[in-house]
Specification:
Elements lengths: L3 H24 L7 H29 L7 H42 L4 H51 L1
């Protein structure tokens, strides 16, 4: 189903990201001088794993919607899922981006130490531009797309329910 795949694939991708960063920290021979640089990497891994957990739980929730129940119950399942997604989108996305960027800032302190200011400012400008684009354009676009799909499903189920009531 179109709503399940992004959650499952996202959970896998974010988990693999956490594993990759953890492997870099453990086996990468990075030789950072300060503990907080590794701390930033650990925080990024934790944030990724928690986000993957949310995505997997969302995947399980949508997978648990039973297509074989009566239309009214089926409609209620979709409405409950829609309410859950609205709540998740309202708090999860901002919290995820804020925590991820705090962890990245901690990590970048040592990385930027001793670098030319122009290079640091250029990197920060590109990074901030990407994060703003990802949050305000890509994130909102995905939310709108999912919202439209859910609204279509719910409206179709309401229509079917209305037709069944007329037939009775």
């Amino acid at each position: 189903m179109k709503l399940q795949k992004p959650q499952l694939h996202g959970a896998i991708a974010v988990t693999l990201t956490a594993v990759f960063i953890a492997c870099l920290a453990i086996f990468g021979n990075l030789n950072f001088k300060h503990w907080y640089t590794y701390g930033g990497m650990v925080l990024i891994c934790i944030i990724c794993v928690v986000q993957a957990g949310f995505m997997y739980a969302t995947y399980k929730k949508i997978k648990g919607i039973d297509d074989t129940v009566e239309p009214t119950a089926h409609l209620h399942q979709w409405e409950a899922y829609y309410d859950l997604r609205k709540k998740q989108n309202r708090w999860n996305m901002p919290v995820y981006y804020i925590l991820l960027n705090i962890a990245m800032a901690i990590y970048m302190v040592e990385i930027f130490t001793g670098r030319p200011v122009v290079n640091v400012l250029l990197f920060i400008a590109v990074y901030v531009a990407w994060m703003l684009f990802a949050y305000f354009y890509l994130g909102r676009k995905n939310i709108r797309r999912e919202d439209n799909r859910l609204q279509t499903i719910i409206n179709d189920l309401k229509s079917i329910e209305g037709q069944l009531k007329k037939a009775d």
